[in-house]
Amino acid sequence: MTLAPRPPFPGAGRTFAIVPVKSLVHAKQRLGSAISAETRRQLVLGMLGDVLETLARVPLIARTIVVTRDGEVAAAASARGAEVIEEPEGADLNASITSGLARAATEGGRRALVIPGDVPLATPTDIEAVLRGATAKGGAIVPDANGTGTNTLLLPLPAPFAPAFGPGSFGEHKRRAAAAGLAVAVVEREGLAQDIDLSDDLRRLEWLPRYAQLGIGPHGRLDAEAAYGLETADLREMMRQAEAMTLAGFGRTVTYSRKVFIPLTQLCRDVCHYCTFARTPRHGSAAFLSPDEVLAIARAGAEAGCKESLFTLGDQPEVRYRAAREALERLGYESTLAYLEAMAKLVLKETGLLPHINAGIMDEAWARRMKAVSASQGIMLETASDRLSERGGPHFGSPDKVPAVRLEAIAAAGRAQVPFTTGLLVGIGETRRERIDALLTIRDLADAYGHVQEVIIQNFRAKPGTRMANAPDASLDEHLWSIAAARLILGPDMSVQAPPNLHDMGDLGSLVKAGVNDWGGVSPVTPDHVNPEAPWPHLARLEAATSTAGRVLAERTAIAPRHALEPRKWLAKELLAPVLHKLDVAGMAREDEWAPGDAGRLPPTRDVALVSRRAAPISSPIARTLDRAMSGRRLGEAEIAALFAARGDDFSAICKTADEMRRARCGDEVTYVVNRNINYTNICTYGCKFCAFSKGRLSANVRDKPYDLELEEVAERTRQAWQRGATEVCLQGGIAPKYTGHTYLAIVEAVKIGAPDMHVHAFSPLEVWHGAETLGLDLKDYLARLKAQGLSSLPGTAAEILDDEVRRVLCPDKITTDQWIAVMEAAHAVGLKSTATIMFGHVDTADHWARHLIRVRDLQERTGGFTELVPLAFVHMESPIFLRGQARRGPTFREAVLMHAVGRLVLDGAIANVQASWVKLGPEGAAACLSAGANDVGGTLMNESITRAAGAAHGQEMVATAIEAMIRSAGRTPRQRTTFYGEPPPAQRATAMADRGAAEPMIAAE
Amino acid sequence: MSTAAGDGAHWVALCGGIGGAKLALGLSRVLPPERLTIVVNTGDDFRHFGLHVSPDIDTVLYTLAGLSNTELGWGLAGETWRFMEGVERLGGPSWFRLGDMDLATHAVRTMMLAEGRTLSEATTYLAGRLGVGPTVVPMSDEPVATQVETDEGTLAFQTYFVGRRTEPRVRKIMFDGAERAHVAPAAVEALRRDDLGGIIICPSNPWLSIDPLLAIPEWRVLLAARKAPCIAITPLVGGQAVKGPTAKIMGELGLPLDVRAIVEHYSGWIDGFVLDTVDADRAGDLALETLVINTMMRTLEDRTALAEAALGFCRRLRQRGLETAQ
Lengths: 1006, 326
Prior knowledge:
The complex is a heterodimer.
Chain A: E1 15-21, H1 37-56, E2 61-68, H2 71-79, E3 83-86, H3 93-106, E4 111-114, H4 124-133, E5 139-143, E6 150-156, H5 169-179, E7 184-186, H6 190-193, H7 202-205, H8 208-211, H9 224-229, H10 235-250, E8 253-262, H11 291-303, E9 308-312, H12 317-320, H13 322-331, H14 336-351, E10 354-358, H15 364-371, E11 376-378, H16 403-415, E12 420-426, H17 432-449, E13 452-459, H18 476-490, E14 496-497, H19 508-514, E15 518-522, H20 539-548, E16 552-556, H21 561-564, H22 567-570, H23 573-580, H24 605-611, H25 620-630, H26 637-643, H27 648-666, E17 669-673, E18 675-678, H28 711-723, E19 728-731, H29 741-754, E20 759-762, H30 765-774, H31 779-789, E21 793-794, H32 804-810, H33 817-829, E22 833-840, H34 846-863, E23 866-873, H35 880-883, H36 893-907, E24 913-914, H37 918-929, E25 936-939, H38 946-949, H39 960-969, E26 973-977, H40 986-994
Parallel strand pairs in A: 1-2, 1-4, 2-3, 5-7, 8-9, 8-15, 8-16, 9-10, 10-11, 11-12, 12-13, 13-14, 17-25, 17-26, 18-19, 19-20, 21-22, 22-23, 23-24
Antiparallel strand pairs in A: 4-6, 5-6
Chain B: E1 10-15, H1 18-30, E2 36-40, E3 46-48, E4 51-53, H2 55-64, H3 82-89, H4 100-114, H5 119-130, E5 135-138, E6 145-150, E7 153-156, H6 157-163, E8 170-176, H7 185-191, E9 196-201, H8 206-214, H9 217-224, E10 230-233, E11 236-237, E12 240-241, H10 246-252, H11 259-265, E13 272-276, E14 289-293, H12 300-325
Parallel strand pairs in B: 1-2, 1-9, 2-5, 9-10, 10-13, 13-14
Antiparallel strand pairs in B: 3-4, 6-7, 6-8, 11-12
Helix pairs in contact in B: 1-2, 1-12, 4-5
């Protein structure tokens, strides 16, 4: 790892890089015909651009020579500062390289690095490793991923032997070197081993979308004409493109939902020839599950950890069967749908499981009614072919299977803005062309209403006892073709689902490669009722199969993540709280019960283990981002946001990288400050929706009474704190109506009276803004007066999320992003340093987090006034916005850790310190963050009121010895610090270490 | 009232400008105003002198109001041109002719849009002031701009159509904004009526006047889920376009000048096709229900006769559909 500027190397100026690039016409032929010439051109130029950029960042490389015959490549190379020599007429690759070597030698080069133009994963560190790996007069060779070919060759000049790139060249190069008496070091570098031409490799495919526009049209998907061309396209090529498109849209995440299946009735008015779900009425068996039976199933599901209750049932059985009519009458409902509505409502209320309604044909009015009791709805389009409804077809006699009828039901749900699942049944007699028709129809529905949340591509399996028992199953290839076609037609953003239980486990990887990014509902309780002969694979086996395919299994809820991120648009108000309480920042399911501030729950062991595990990132974009962060590059918004989605190995790698950067920057010491929080009033005129601390003057909240400390009390508390060894008081409070700029000046004065040497860390930007405004002063003038009075630094609170999109919802009347930045800029300008905070995990998204960090970084680059980043995980329990069902339960543990790690990656070099807050995360959580980029654990606090008011139970105080024990338990060395990271006065240090905490609560007023 | 119109059903006509407006006029004469919704292409809409110009909507409104300029074939009857004279004196753009009274239409529409009204609302208002009975509704309230890719580059529709008089060779026609646009609410409502009698695609240019509408996903959804038959009236007679550049465009797109190309273009959307007596022999080649009748609308009687026949054709298709279902 290289963090410091690299020292000049004596050999610099003598090493040339030689990059041979074939003509675009012939380049990358192995990618095959499904990739258009234009795509191939973009791909080759894109990769070359990256390689040249990397070479330009290696100081040891004096010059780069590109050998090519292609005018476009030559132009692109020149534009990036490379020299271009023309590939000799009729030359093969090795002849081209030889001409490059000759040129380098005649221009005075001592060494030449032969590197292909298609290793976009290569980093400057990789290149330097090769250059340093070679002995002074020797060479170096980097094998390809198979270990048989050569991907990079370092030779002294003039070249002692002719290059022999091609299959088996690794061995051949070593032989030739030995024959020439040249010592060659073998350097294995992941980044250099990966070239892109063997495109069935997942990692390489991830680069396709980066460089090439796949397909046509605004969504990067096939237009209708091209879609029909798939009918006869080569399956392998289709899958290759589909997989790249899937990776572009969903990364490596494959989702599933933990669901319990509630078959409300198995009677159906339709008679589809392949169905085993529907039954005819039989004596002794009830037509409908009773409310008690429904609840019993749901409770068992909730017990087992399900989040979804899937209501699947037959279409309007009462129209066909008297038994159904009579049963409904006995239950007291006018129709199956009315009974379903009542049962969904019951399950939601009693268990919190989110109903997904799959009840056949519903009109718009019913879709709206069901929206109030469900998180999503669905109906399979199955087919767009009227042919299958004709005599002899599987849908003959099934009025609800007429495509136009189903189409209208899906459109009705769209008009009702219901998140909706639909899909195709493959292999019931339809043609490929008819499947393309159906996919285009689904795409129209999705475009028209935006409500299609996932498209299921289900393969027909012949079932005994049905009229199609002897019909052939849809073949695996036909299923794969259909999945790939769905992906290519529906584009990178549409969730494509295939049931995992209708194939051999060994074939699941191919479904993923064809374009699947979701396995649908997985039930731990009841067998799947539609395919009883193929029980759901056990979750662990599904996870293993997914992992074998190079993906990470992740849980979602009944509403797909993209729709879940716009809850107010897609959910009825009745569903907001039940859904939001189950979500993480990406709209996926929370996979554990941990929440910030909840002292009763330890961080999930699985995530804690991931924090300190050594792992290489599995996603190439993440790998690249980490490398860029390590070499001191500024990360962009999209890059940062992508880091927050990391799971599994990617998550571990991010933590590890942040940990290494922390060690390089701060060493192994973990600092803390002995301080006291003084929250002088909880009376506040502002209505921040998240805040449980503030009270209006007449607030009748039972938990905390309004209070306003006298200045004498502030002075007294400061004095007490000093006596217990504190070096800092941290003062913040509500904006009480009577408070003016004078109030804050008086508070500083009171502190100084209490303890003249106390560091006064006080006043959020909101208070500073308020103070300046009430006195009619310019921000800088007011801050200068505070400083003159004795103010030492500012807490960077009231930042929440520095993005007005979030602030409008979270704290509509508070200062805006620009105003917060203005206060900080002014404070830094008058010589007042501050911390920077981010309060996250409520109504925000990963994009907002990324923007926040970038804004903090930008300001720091202008002023240098921030001392540390303090991630403040949102504590939800008593927060009004949570209690109203409008916010999530804070970040998940994984997200909380990531905020510290990503904060380190983004801000390293700008802000040296990242603080883990034990008040929010608990001692165990804070300790984990110390292995993920954090180097400070904040203060001992003595009294903390604000987080506690929000419902946190991690206590008000952690004395110095307790904090040091916590730090030691994380294997690190504690060090008490002052606010500005200096050494505390020995007397204060000794007092603090002797402190065993206050015997009595230190205050009664609050 | 005729027999076909007397069944109390509601009808929807889809049309572009001049050719389509002729049949729209015929339909308006045989149907009571509350039973006809005319949906008009807005892919030709553009801004000129800062004004929102909706050429096809205006043609339909003027035609139905009996105010159209029969000499020019577009614009208002008895129009004066003082505005254009002024523009020319000032050296302004004069390639798109705006008559004085026509200018008022654009000005009032633009004012309403600037006040936050939708194009549907502005159209309803203008129709009311001009005394047009049936509901006239734009295909969408959101902008969809027809772009023509030609051998001279990609041209905005009016630049191609009026500015360059359709001379450049067409390679491809695109509809900017269509994928994000939605169907105008009154059109959704009309298509979803339980008493919908049929949908009639007027003899407009399929590529320039009807395709903008078909490029909108919600239109395709609504038409695919149609509750009543949809028919199209041929814009070709004897291999010639009745009006405008249809034939020229078909040639440039490599299509045979034959009604079959039209039927294939509408494949999946229509249940029946009306072709001219001149092309009667082509009926057997078409794989759907056909009606052969005079489609040349020279007189008002021609227009009403074709309208009556179209309604009757739809009604027969509907009847047949019901029988099949039972």
